[in-house]
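#lab-general

N.A. 3:47 PM
ok so I finally got the sequence cleaned up, no stray characters, all 437 residues accounted for. can someone with queue access submit it? mine expired

B.Y. 3:52 PM
send it over

N.A. 3:53 PM
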Amino acid sequence: MTDGRVTRRVLGRRYLSAWIGFSAGGRFSQALATVIVLFAFGRPTVGALVGGAGTWAVLVSLVVLAGLSLLGQRYRIDWHGVLPLSLLAFVGYCALSVLWSQYSWVALRGFVATVCFIGLGLYLALGRDLVQVIRAAGDAFRILLVVALGLEVLSGLVLDVPFPAFGIHGDIAYGGPIQGTGGTRNFMGFVAAIALVTFVVEFLTRSVTTWRAVGSTALAVVALMLVQSPITGLAMIALAVTALALWALRHARPTARPVVNTVLGAFVVAVLVVGVLARHRILAEIGAAGGSATRIDLWSQIRVLTQQYPIQGWGWVGAWPHEAVVPFVTLVDPAGVRYGSGLNAFFDAWLQIGLAGALLLLVTALLAFGRAWVTATTFPGVAYVWPAAVLVLLGVTSTAESYLLHGAGLMVFTTVLVVAARRRSWRRHLPRAEHPA
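B.Y. 4:20 PM
back already:
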């Protein structure tokens, strides 16, 4: 019996060692990265197909595979100062908030989901280089867009019936809006916008053929036109301004870049001031007045609730739970329908982790953008434009949605945060610890 147990242990260790070595291989790692992006941005469709339990099973399986892959690559990964302290502080504060929440089990489940998506983001940043991440994201977005448009055509043109399980209304015959694999037009627009950025950077880095890049970009543009999302339209305007600014800065002399950055900063501040002063007219022109009224009503309700726990918040949950737990069950629209999120990353974080946590998230985001912007404008690699552009999309979208706090938004935020910190973290200059031979 003893010899049999020893033999099984030896075989088990050999099998585990072989699997770790296989998972660290380039082909497996790249395929896993593609599946991770595909799952994160296609989660609404995955949930409709396999339910909540199935979604959790897929998420946990991907985290385990990513962990084994990182374990196999541990000797080639440079861990020196790579994990941003701001991200660690944010995660730590979210963990602490579980202790004082009035819905501990729901909060614990939300925190576990948060850690899982942050872990997947870390895998993309550490297990793959930036060009490989962009290539994996490009493959995933091509699949998502083809499936999304295919489902819309099937629903709106072939069968002429909606697909309620997927959130598809079948309005493609009327020019949209479409929901595709996103469940809502805003999330589908978010997917299409990041896909467009990814396809363009793929082309600039010559990661794909010209015909594939042109076809992929055309898919993303068609999806963007069909979603008819006002917030996506604003995000694309911000993205166009960002692209022009990055082009100007990357072609400017190093001595002229501070002046160009100062002018750009003044321009952005002026645009924000004008936007705030003329917000009602602007929202009416882009057809977002109704949605803005709904959001303002929700934010007013959130401000009332934050007065009870203004500093520490009610407790972290990430995506709002479906269970009838206070305070989320009390947040309803005029028709009596419960909201699914705070429809703004800052207000949502303020409700969950208080003003202290929301400010910590804001500092983390600003540090990430500052590092990504400096890297994108000074580093010769074109691929480093991708993190800065993605952060702009996340920032603009986060004013009207809470994607930054959970799921795909949190995962890609973690990825670009770590990528930017790898080039600009002050801890890179600290002396390395000497390991004994």
